[in-house]
Amino acid sequence: MSDGKLENAETVLEVNHLAVTFTGKETVHAVRDFSFTVHKGEVVAIVGESGSGKSVSAMSLLGLLPRNAVVSGDVKLDGKPLDVSYLSPEIRKIRGRQVSMIFQDPLDSLDPVFTVGEQIAEAVRVNDPKADKATVTARVIDLLKSVELPEPDTLRRKYPHQLSGGQQQRILIAIALAGRPRILLADEPTTALDVTVQQGILDLLHQISRSEGVGVLIITHDMGVVADIADQVVVVRNGALVEAGETVRLFHYPQNDYTRELLDAVPKTPLLGGSLGSDHAAAVVSATGATSAPAPAASDEQPVLKVENLSVSYAPRTPDVVHGVSFDINHHEVLALVGESGSGKSTIVRCVLGLAQQTGGTVMVDGVEYLKQRRREQTKTRHKIGVIFQSPMGSLDPRQTLAQSIAEPLIYALGVPRGDALAKAEELMDRVHLTRDMATRYPSEISGGQRQRVSIARAIALNPELLIADEPTSALDVSVQKDVIALFRELQRDLGFACLFVSHDLPLVASFCHKVVVLQHGQEVEYGPVESVFVHPTTDYARKLILSAPLADPEVQHERRRLREQAATA
Known about the structure:
Layout: E1 11-22, E2 28-39, E3 43-47, H1 54-61, E4 69-77, E5 80-82, H2 89-94, E6 99-102, H3 106-109, H4 116-127, H5 133-146, H6 152-155, H7 165-177, E7 183-187, H8 195-212, E8 215-220, H9 223-229, E9 232-237, E10 240-246, H10 247-252, H11 257-264, H12 279-287, E11 305-312, E12 322-329, E13 334-338, H13 345-352, E14 358-365, H14 375-382, E15 385-388, H15 392-395, H16 402-414, H17 418-431, H18 448-459, E16 466-470, H19 478-495, E17 498-502, H20 506-512, E18 515-520, E19 523-529, H21 530-535, H22 540-548, H23 554-569
Parallel strand pairs: 3-8, 3-9, 6-7, 7-8, 13-17, 13-18, 15-16, 16-17
Antiparallel strand pairs: 1-2, 1-4, 4-5, 9-10, 11-12, 11-14, 18-19
Helix pairs in contact: 4-5, 4-7, 5-7, 7-8, 8-22, 9-23, 16-17, 16-18, 17-18
């Protein structure tokens, strides 16, 4: 958010009346009359739903759109007109130099067969062809230091797969900085990262903007990220500008109904982060209101899922990747597993599904230690478990229609005749609020939110008692996420299943789940009701994790950043 340092700052990028049209069988007006400015040392966020034109706008500024894209408008870089038409020689001159881009998935951007040092060196040589080997190496090490990576001389010799997701993203930032750019375009740079790593990347981008005077244009659907880092916000819908303004003003006094809808879709949390030690911050967070799901009435029923002292190791005589984890879930309950990447969340899920073998402890479904059952009985018990994966495109067969995908478990698990299964699939589409005329469509022909509804319909096809949801909303924008969570609540109310929910979105966990397990290095560090763990965490790790989750309130995030910077210089 704005901190008063940017008054009268020079304009680096000025975009007026930008328009992008894709030609072909159908003409698509992806961006229409879009205008914004970025000043030196300023962070500007472009926000909006999927398909609103956010990424297309940024890509057009670097000439990264396909040949059938027609780009028009008045664009100025450092006050000089910039031709943004396809194959413009001006664009090629500034790309990677005056303007650089950081993409969403570093593994899609980094070459797996070259070390990260070689890839940074390539960017250095492009910008300084006459530099000798020693100069290039020194510059690579300087860039690694600038993105706060430890032991740069050792790290530059590693390959992308040897680094964590956060380290890979820092490598992309180092490559982007190689040309000493005036503008950094960051397209969803933290979407796939857990909250503590995300905080580190956001802090780094903020520090680069302030210390180097680089203008940052960040594209995101995460309003918490916007509140944390942005000085100005540009809201776009259907390719057109809806509202723009200073971050605090826009969050507290939105002028447009669509902006209000985006902000209202953000989960409200019960005092999440109120332990800042700031009366003001606590008051602001409290004012957002507690909307966490009401806990089911206490009962003596047998838990649907009971995990006791679970340990998992991937090889003999090696340390456990999960050790001593215990929890239980009843009907109508949602329990969340949270923690950093590598904390053991996915391993626990794999173990519950029988895809990873436990080395200690028990996993019981409906009172039965089903992983020790005979194959036939184990298969019957597995039918009581439904799974929703993170990426519906990765879990749905692209060659099957939506109805065929939903009907598949009925056909193969229960032996339901194909015709009856397809009819049941249409009934399930009704349950997840998809129209029956979509039954013959394919996954590629519908939106991300609709694909996730298909995954949910498929998961409940066998009427499971336990539903496992692995990051089911991480790729969805806030308004679609809100609708999917509302659907979850409706189905759980009607069907009564227990839910094991894996997520790194702590505000969502606080608004949706009843209980939470906080994991660190495969061990359970906190377990209890969401309200208790998030409001009064008892461990330093849980407190750090909670405070790392960006809230959709610029004033709270500004106070958090001030305290972090104060602690770093103490």
